[in-house]
């Protein structure tokens, strides 16, 4: 269900499903939390108490190892939000003018 919420950019609903899982005694795994990171990213929620980076930190605190999918999902979320600076790449906005006017050849 978290994956379905992610596809619809419904991060808050994805968090509700995570809470339901935990209340039922089902511990989330790396796949579940990667889907939650995806939901956060698609909703534009990178930071804050219900943000993608918080999910990653909680994941690591719980002793779960982020995998390639986790990091790729996080990178995709940052790229879509034009927030690559969060990844330490120093690329706040690699193309400040996404629609440049073509130059005439001299």
Would you mind describing this structure in some detail?
- With 106 residues, the chain is mainly α.
- The protein has one domain (2-87).
- It contains five helices and no strands.
- Helix 2 runs antiparallel to helix 3, helix 3 (30-42) runs antiparallel to helix 4 (52-61) and helix 3 (30-42) runs parallel beside helix 5.
- The protein starts with a helix and ends in a 26-residue tail after the last helix.
- Residues 89-100 have low confidence and may be disordered.
Number of domains: 1
The largest pleated sheet is described as: none
Q: N-to-C terminal Cα separation, in Å? A: 57 Å
Structural class, from secondary structure content? mainly alpha
Q: Name the poorly predicted regions.
A: 89-100
* Count of discrete alpha- or pi-helical segments spanning 4 or more residues: 5
Compute the number of strand runs: 0
Report the principal-axis shape. globular
**Average pLDDT number:** 81
Strand content: under 5%
> Which series of helices and strands comes N to C?
HHHHH
* Helical residue percent band: 40-55%
| CA radius of gyration | 17 Å
């Amino acid at each position: 269900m978290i994956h379905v919420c992610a596809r619809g950019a419904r991060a808050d609903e994805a968090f509700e499903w995570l809470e339901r899982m935990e209340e039922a005694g089902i511990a989330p795994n790396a796949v579940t939390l990667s889907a939650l990171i995806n939901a956060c990213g698609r909703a534009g929620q990178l930071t804050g108490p219900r943000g993608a980076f918080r999910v990653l930190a909680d994941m690591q605190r719980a002793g779960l190892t982020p995998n390639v999918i986790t990091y790729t999902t996080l990178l995709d979320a940052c790229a879509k939000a034009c927030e690559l600076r969060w990844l330490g790449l120093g690329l706040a906005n690699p193309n400040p003018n996404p629609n440049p006017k073509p130059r005439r050849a001299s």
